[in-house]
Amino acid sequence: MVxxxxxxxxxxxxxxxxxxxxxxxxxxxxxxxxxxRLAPQSDVCLICGEPGPYATYVWSRDRVANLxxxxxxLWKQERx
Length: 80
Prior knowledge:
The chain has two helices and three strands. The model has no long low-confidence stretch (mean pLDDT about 80). It is an alpha+beta fold.
């Protein structure tokens, strides 16, 4: 099921509130196709749940987020 922009923004805020998507810049970042060298990569985007995430972010305490470019952009907007 494809989520609307409003649903994606609400999901980002929920993930931030739960601490699963921190409201801070990641310590490490990798973008692009191929396996992540930073952390285990999920087959789905943390925000929308669709396959094929593009970016991997890593924070302390082994928190990892794999995101599509569009979902990543929404998260950055919500952090501002």
